[in-house]
Amino acid sequence: MSINDAMIKERIKSQIPDAKIFLEGEACNYKAIVISQIFENMTAVKKHQTVYATVNDLIASGELHALTIKAYTPEQWQAQQ
Q1: Which element (helix H / strand E) includes 59?
Q2: What pLDDT is stored for residue 51 in this prediction?
Q3: What is the extent of the structural domain holding 32?
Q4: Model-level pTM?
Q5: Which residues lie below 8 Å from residue 19, measured CB to CB, with a gap of 6+?
Q6: What does the pLDDT look like over 10-61, one tens digit per residue?
Q7: Count of domains for the chain
Q8: Cα Rg for the chain, rounded, in angstroms?
């Protein structure tokens, strides 16, 4: 199976329905910016764990080798802009 943007976005959205997702990359190496209210009051580590959990099986199987994550609440994202 070949990993693509749509598959990764679908996986993240299945667990974080309100997420806005920006992906960059190809093949098996991606960078993701994930913005969701669910991240409110979470540490950076917990945010990353939450996103990784959505694609953990793809990482375990080797289909997805690397996913670099930046996770923000909408307010944090707005402050970044």
Answers
A1: helix 44-61
A2: 97
A3: 5-72
A4: 0.90
A5: 12, 13, 34, 35, 36, 38
A6: 999 999 999 999 999 877 789 999 999 999 999 999 999 999 999 999 889 8
A7: 1
A8: 12
Three-class SS state of 28? coil
Q: Kindly state whether residue 78 falls inside one of the protein's structural domains.
A: no
Residue 52 φ then ψ, to 5°: -55, -35
Candidates 57, 73, 3, 70; CA nearest to 31 is 70
pLDDT at 52: 95
pLDDT at site 2: 66
CATH number at residue 48: 3.30.300.90
- Is 50 within a domain? yes
40: which 2 tokens? 């409110």
Task: For tokens 């670099």, name the residue.
Answer: 68
